[in-house]
Amino acid sequence: MVAAGAALADEVGLAGLTMGLLAGRLGVRTPSLYKHVGGQDDLVRRIAVLALQEAAEAVGGAVRGYAGRDALAAAARAFRAFVLAHPGRYAATLGQEPSGPDDPLAAAGQRLLEAFHAVLRGYDIPDRDVNHALRLLRSLFHGFATLQASDGFQWSTDVDESFEWLVAFADRGLRTL
């Protein structure tokens, strides 16, 4: 049911996802969904966990065997592709906070963070700056991908070219630390 909710969120947008719409998609009555989730908020939280797990798998798989700029580019492309393919489920991850260290949301988020941390191992970044570098990468890649997913780049310059420019810019910045 969570996978169906995630697919529906990708199709109609997270804001358009309702329990009634999901029930209709699944061919059941809305009250039947409450046997599986505690309500709309619980459904969105479960979609967020799924999305973080999938994004971590995509990014982690993309960076295996690479280091430095190659790892950075692979991670950036995998993350962007995930957000573009799954804008609704990715939107579910925003604003979610783990309830504690055993929360599946925390574990899934940590896996994605570890994938980006692996990218940073290819750069000579002082330990005190690693969290800053992680936030930089999140801001750059999240910002670009979500803007693109919402059709935020409506001028003539090629979006793929701009993305590669962003990756090169991030690489140069990380190498100068």
Summarize the structure.
By secondary structure, this protein is mainly α.
Helix and strand element order: HHHHHHHHH
Ends apart, CA distance between termini: 45 Å
Give the total of beta strands. Answer: 0
Q: What about the largest sheet?
A: none
Structural class, from helix and strand content?
mainly alpha
Question: What is the arithmetic mean of pLDDT?
Answer: 96
**Helical content band:** over 70%
Overall 3D shape: globular
Taking all Cα atoms into account, the compactness measure Rg is 18 Å
Given as residue ranges, the uncertain stretches (5+ residues, pLDDT < 50) are none
The total count of helices amounts to: 9
Strand fraction equals under 5%
Organism: Streptomyces ardesiacus
Keywords: DNA-binding, Transcription, Transcription regulation
Domain HTH tetR-type: 1-55
Protein name: TetR/AcrR family transcriptional regulator
